[in-house]
Automatic annotation (TrEMBL):
Location of the DUF1285 domain: 23-89, 90-184
Organism: Parendozoicomonas haliclonae
Record protein name field: Proteophosphoglycan
Short name of any one Pfam family annotated for the protein: DUF1285_C
InterPro entries: DUF1285, DUF1285_beta_roll_sf, DUF1285_C, DUF1285_N
Amino acid sequence: MTAEKANNLLEQIARSKKEGRLPPVHDWHPPFCGDIDMVIKADGSWHYMGSPIGRERMVRLFSTVLRRDDDDYFLVTPVEKVGITVEDVPFVVTAVQVRDVEGAQVLEFTTSVGDTVVASAENPMRVELDPQTQEPRPYILIRDRLEARIHRNVFYELVEMAKPTLIDGVEWFGVESAGEFFRIAPVS
């Protein structure tokens, strides 16, 4: 992708952002224009042509037009669709706040690109085990098949507030949010 095409893509994204909400990327079906040398690293940092993108506003802008189709990730505008590489998932949760909403505990997560989401049936949290290290890898659905990995520090906060609950004859440590129980690990 040339610098001119990259600037054109940025202009298109900025125009779609003027409405003050996320662009309707799932309603856009432009032609595929090829892959670009953009990578979202496992640590949540964004890189273009091997260099980190240091401007937070630019990363946030790109994050608003990110779409996942099957197992591939794309930046999508009304007129272009370009493929990018995502090493794990595109976002990282950097903070959690515990709130009381009408007597129910709600966990509100914030990502490194400024998205906020409440763990709920619509935005479930899950924990996988790394196949090599057996360390837990927690995730939460942010939007439209796009997940965030929950940063280790935030995960430790969740572990601190975890309580045992019996589910189908198995006792699990987990957390509640918006009336849902999210499993962290079985009780040994």
